[in-house]
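Run Bll5754 protein through structure prediction, thanks.
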Amino acid sequence: MGAGASTMKRMILTSSSGVGLTYADRADMVVPLIFRFVSGPLPTSHHLDNYLKGGSFRGEPDVRWSDLVVQSPQTGRAHRELGLVWFCETCGVELIELWFDPSPNNQLQLVWILDYLRAEPYMVERLRLRLVDFDLLGADVAGLRERTVRALDVTERDFEVARMAWEAYRAPTPELCLGLLSRDFPRLPFLKPAMEELLAELPSPITGLGATEARLLELIARGHNRTRELFQPGGLLETRVYDQWELGPLLEGLASGPMPAVAGLDPKLATLAPHDARGRNAAFRRSRLLLTEFGKAVLAGREDFRSHNPIRRWWGGTLLTNERLWRWDGQSRSLVAP
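Sure, done. The structure for Bll5754 protein is below.
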């Protein structure tokens, strides 16, 4: 629906994957939410709230909900300094659609934003959930404009499921997330598959590798030794959990430590700052990867990578260390406690 085609004011909340919706003429304003919840420590509730409340305060997040929003003809720059909810009320937004695809980070964003909005009566009455059953990233604008995407009203039960799932993912152990797999969420059909994909990234009881790490080793073993073909979106790795920027640290983890599984990573990477994207990119491109003998043994299930190498990595609210190493047994779909 074009901006001037009707008096109904529509807003779409989506992930950064859905930025193409800005040009698909389906709403007056598209708000892409930028958080990545699948790697690194989770942002605090305080940080997330400030991101949505807007305004600029010293020491608060540099990025706010309005920063990726294209200026709308109706409201001009009004969104820049207002909180999301306050903006919707002030500008009389009549319909707020949630567009989040099945990928794990999108599903985590969906449960987070539902949990946040459940306490806001103005928003609750105007929310619609779109069941986006395709990947938003890479979808062409014409396709997004024409596509039929089923819409549901958001119910109290949906808010309850979102709260439960978001709390489970933020908990200090993955046990509550495992509990979600035995439940049915017919109105949030992509939540359980996403949670299972996330659990598969916990280290295996046999190899000590998560699903994406294991796939990386398999591809390197087959001779795919260039990071570009491994990391590019829609590339060989076919990872749905991590984006291309999160794969670098994962590969570095496999190539460093007392017993590396991968050799050939450019040694300059060890000296570059994490935020030096250009330098790190170039170093990754210069790398020619191959498996070490130990890496081959890990891939074959004869060695456990984590028995020989340190780990300190966040999985949701769970900090994985060698002493507190939760593992995921994909065959029995069960957790192995430390």
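DSSP finds 14 helices and eleven strands in the chain.
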